[in-house]
């Protein structure tokens, strides 16, 4: 019986279409897949292997770390450190970058990741995920510095996530559409289950944390108000609402059946010196690349996400993404 296309087969075939790609790229994506399989295994076993609960530590952003945040970060490092594909790694869970090698002639990629997204959901057995973004080592770089990572999302060569849900799925773009792979646990391979994923341009489903309503700015207030008016309002249709609080799960839903996701900037975040809640480099940018590759839109409000010039590794940004016509509508409200 044929098992279908494995992730490895897919990447090798795909690599032939990527300009300048060598076997390194296949190796890198394989390493990411290995880390994701190991994280999936722990997420799946949960309390049986004592990985739930808090780690009694804080990350660079002052957020309480969960045990699985720390472990997932270690598993990413372990999977990537010694294979020579990645020159350096940046992660939500590490203050500064982690250099893996000085031989940047061989290690041609930089990796950014959110090792475990949606960590507030770990202990309640709701979907979480890993997000990753791949950049090329800049021409002529000798020793990798943080500066080398600070490039707009449009320069990503690949991006994706692994969703640890009822099934474990790896979703990937290398700039040539979006493909979904499902983990077959019997023989430990990700198998291609959906290709050329496209997001419907229209939707009747929005996702936003409504508890922040009083802090929102006018364009977001207006948009959500119009959605809530349903068929009697300017949208002329009833809307449904979802909020999982795992961005990976929200983006996966949108890639699957359309929708709009927002974590906008607001007055409260701004009074704490934050432009948004989500991080540009390893949350917003990889998701924006996936969404655009599937025909959707991703903006900060004023600007296309992938054009934002980063200034800091852990910089936060307002995020609005999903079905194109809705994203454009919210974009217009920001211009007005
Ligand atoms: P992380 O667990 O990596 O810190 O990210 C959590 C993010 C994101 O996944 C989700 O969309 C959002 O935070 C949820 O925020 P609220 O708890 O404010 O709803
Ligand atoms: Mn996250
Ligand atoms: Mn995280």
Can you put this structure into words, describing what you see?
This protein has 336 residues and is α+β, with helices and mostly antiparallel strands. The chain has 2 domains: 188 residues, Fructose-1,6-Bisphosphatase, Chain A, domain 1 (2-Layer Sandwich), CATH 3.30.540; 131 residues, 3-Layer(aba) Sandwich (D-Maltodextrin-Binding Protein, domain 2). The chain is built from 8 helices and 17 strands. The chain has an 8-stranded mixed β-sheet with strand order 4-3-5-6-7-8-9-10, with helices on both faces. The protein has a 5-stranded mixed β-sheet with strand order 12-11-13-17-15, sandwiched between helices. A two-stranded antiparallel ribbon has the order 1-2. Strand 9 and strand 10 form a beta hairpin. Helix 1 packs antiparallel against helix 2. The longest helix is centred in the first third of the chain and has 23 residues. The protein is globular, with a radius of gyration of 19 Å. The model has no long low-confidence stretch (mean pLDDT 95). Bound molecules: 2,5-anhydro-1,6-di-O-phosphono-D-glucitol and manganese (II) ion (2 copies). The site of one manganese (II) ion has 6 residues, from strand 5. One manganese (II) ion binds next to strand 5.
